Each structure stands twice: as C-alpha cells, then as structure tokens.
Amino acid sequence: MQKHVNFSTKGLLVFALVLGLTSAMHLNAQATSKATYDKTTKMLALDTKAPFSYLFELDIKPMNFASKEKADAFFSNWTTELVSFQVNYEKRTAEVLLKTRMNPTWGVKEWNDYLAQLPKQ
C-alpha cells in the first residue's frame, strides 16, 4: 500500500510541475511587450502601458524591407552598447533587446528618451 501511495504522490507532483511550467510558459508568451516604429518621425518607441522588460517585440511588416539583408542593415545602424536587435525576417518581427544592467534605474520613459536619439533612417 505504501508504494502505491508514493507512486500516486509522485505522479501528482509531476503532473502539477508540468502543469505549472506549461502555464508559466503560456503567460510568458502572452506577456511579450511591444515596440513600435513611427515612419513619420522615424522613431522607435516602447509600449508605455506594457510590463517593462529587457525584451520588446517589433512588428516590421509595415517597414516593407525588400530582403533580410536590408532589415539587418537597418537594425545594425541602431545597435549600440545599450540596445541590440534580433531580426526574424520570416515572421517579419524584430526583438528589441535592452541592456538593462547598464542602466538599472531606467524605466520605459528613460529608454524611450534614449531610443529617440537613435539615428533617423
């Protein structure tokens, strides 16, 4: 009887762990904060209403890049010691990666002020 109880307890623990990890991944996937690019002002901005994170997703479809190389070249001009980009041309997205450890006290306002200073292109 003791072995059966241990097996049931272990089974429940494994099930709870898997369920918890699945839920956490689902919440994390939905919690991706967004960034936007304004073609008129040529500025990148982080969503001020989203949870602040080191990672923001940018939809690059409206930017109409002719090729992955053109998209990579565009974002390489914006890469600095504080921000970098990972382009996924097939999905037409770019990840905006903030190096938050460099300025741990900055919030979204300070990051948006910094991003506004990136070269206009």
Produce the secondary structure layout:
Elements (H helix, E strand, L loop, with lengths): L1 H29 L2 E6 L4 E4 L8 E5 L8 H9 L6 E6 L4 E6 L9 H8 L6
Parallel strand pairs: 1-3
Antiparallel strand pairs: 1-2, 3-5, 4-5
Written overview of the protein:
The chain is α+β, with helices and mostly antiparallel strands. It is built from 3 helices and 5 strands. It has a 5-stranded mixed beta sheet with strand order 2-1-3-5-4. Mean pLDDT is 84; it is low at 21-29.
**Cα-to-Cα separation, first versus last residue:** 72 Å
**Structural Rg:** 20 Å
Total helices: the number is 3
Give the topology string: H per helix, E per strand: HEEEHEEH
What level of helicity do the residues show? 25-40%
Number of strand elements: 5
Gross geometry: globular
Strand order of the largest sheet: 2-1-3-5-4
- Class derived from helix and strand content: alpha+beta
Question: Mean pLDDT, nearest integer?
Answer: 84
Largest sheet: 5 strands, mixed
Strand proportion: 15-25%
**How many individual domains?**
2
Unreliable segments of 5+ consecutive residues: 21-29
Short description:
This protein is 38% helix and 22% strand. It is α+β, with helices and mostly antiparallel strands and 121 residues long.
Key features of this structure:
5-stranded mixed beta sheet; 22% strand; 5 strands; 121 residues; 3 helices; 2 domains; single chain
